[in-house]
Amino acid sequence: MKIIKNVLLSAVALLAPATAFAGNVSIKGSDTMVILGQRWAEAYMNAHPGQVVMVTGVGRYLGACFARMLADFPDVDRVVGVDVIQPTHDIGNSEFVKADIRNPVVAKVIARTKVDTVVHMNVLATPLDAGGRVPQKEINVIGTMQLLAACQKSPTVSRLVVKSSTTVYGASPRDPAMITEDMAPKVLPRSGYAKASVEVEGYVR
Questions:
Q1: Which end of the chain has the smaller Cβ count within 10 Å, N or C?
Q2: pLDDT tens digits along 126-175
Q3: pTM to 2 decimal places
Q4: Calpha distance 106→96 (Å, rounded)
Q5: Contact 77, 70 (CB under 8 A)
Q6: How many angstroms separate the CA atoms of 55 and 162, rounded?
Q7: Chain Cα centroid distance, residue 203
Q8: Is 26 within 8 Å of 179 (Cβ atoms)?
């Protein structure tokens, strides 16, 4: 069985390496995530040059921003953005492929483009992003399972990056203010995005 290196991306995990490479970061509302994403992408590509990267979820803001930034790095040979909806935000020099990660066709996209790194940004936080709670759960859970299966079977994929959430480690008033990746929430979430995030994390680990 092929071993895939998993890098878990959460808001807290992202903040630490980002500030290490960013110097002084100005906090300007939603723009902060763009700045941190750029710094994280810079650090990642410095460590892993010359790659073909597939980014899921480019039909939404964060996925589109990440794909655009990644495509600007000279060491990145190619960025393939995947989503079931057309991107409404600029994805720069990234290529767009309309594909549903819930469908095994995603394995064909990986094979055809010879992807070596997969960045899974298509874990949706709100039902509005998916058209309802049922599609949201299908994309988050079933879609992730299909994507992981495609990565495992691929002879070219060697790295997997998955967007995570603080809800996996504990984000309630009962949980500590400072958390680490080996922590678990005091009370496991029972529904919605938080529950799906815990399930996704379990599949990745």
A1: N
A2: 665 656 677 777 777 888 899 999 999 999 999 998 887 777 777 777 87
A3: 0.70
A4: 13
A5: no
A6: 10
A7: 14
A8: no
Long-range contacts of 124-132 (CB under 8 A, 24+ apart): 124/57, 124/60, 124/193, 125/165, 125/193, 126/193, 129/60
pLDDT at 55 over 90: yes
- Residue 48 CA to residue 39 CA, distance in Å, equals 14
Residue 69, Cα to own-chain centre: how many angstroms? 14
The one-letter amino acid code at 36 reads: L
Nearest alpha-carbon partner for 148 in 138, 165, 162: 162
φ and ψ at 119, to 5 degrees? -110, 110
Backbone angles phi, psi at 55, to 5 degrees: -115, 120
Average confidence (pLDDT) over 66-72? 92
β-strands 5-9, 76-83 pairing: unpaired
CB-based contacts of 77, cutoff 8 Å, min separation 6: 50, 51, 52
Q: Which of 149, 201, 144 is nearest to 170 (CA)?
A: 201
Q: Look at residue 161 and give its three-state secondary structure.
A: strand
For residue 198, give both structure tokens: 């815990």
CB-based burial label for 97 (10 Å; 0-12, 13-18, 19+): middle
The radius of gyration computed from the CA coordinates of the chain, to the nearest angstrom, equals: 16
Helix (H, G, I), strand (E, B) or coil at 8: strand
Least confident among 45-49, 71-75, 77-81, 147-151: 45-49
